[in-house]
Amino acid sequence: MEKNLHKAMNEQIRNELYSAYLYLSMAAYCESKNLPGIAHWLKVQAKEEVSHAMKFFEFMVDVGAEIKLLAIDQPPADFSSVTDIFEKTLEHEKKVTAMINNLVNLAQKAGDHPSMVMLQWFVNEQVEEEKNASQILETLKMIKEQGPAIVMLDRELGKREG
Ligand code: FEO
Fold first, then answer.
1. Is 52 in the pocket of ligand 1 (CB under 6 A)?
2. Separation of CA 19 and ligand 1 centre (Å)
3. Domain spanning 3-157: which superfamily?
4. Looking at the chain, which terminus has fewer C-beta neighbours within 10 angstroms, N or C?
């Protein structure tokens, strides 16, 4: 695998695992605020992020690219509200989208077709990731985290499968 692409893909394993860590930290905050449904949604999200890291891991194994696991940063724990959490989620997913786009650019530059095909899955996934975070954020802004509405949103997000 081309040097820059290889480095960025290795880093992306760490980035996806950091995402899992970030969402788990957000889930812990929601548990402490007695919002188990939103915490559940975030825990499912954290599991998805681990599966994203594993997709990169397995792909690198398949193409014979050496894997070097990097240190994962401590995620923030100082959230001020559920709206704050979903603002940060959307912001974070936009950053991940930029990372995926960068990987696609590197793969294209290297003429690495297997990587380009694999990365297409992530391009589509990021559209979903940003859409989900943005929809929940819009709902939170509408209900202003008030009484019955936040309880209903908590129940709704508690139904996420995974
Ligand atoms: Fe793995 Fe949320 O992007």
1. yes
2. 7
3. Ferritin, core subunit, four-helix bundle (1.20.1260.10)
4. C
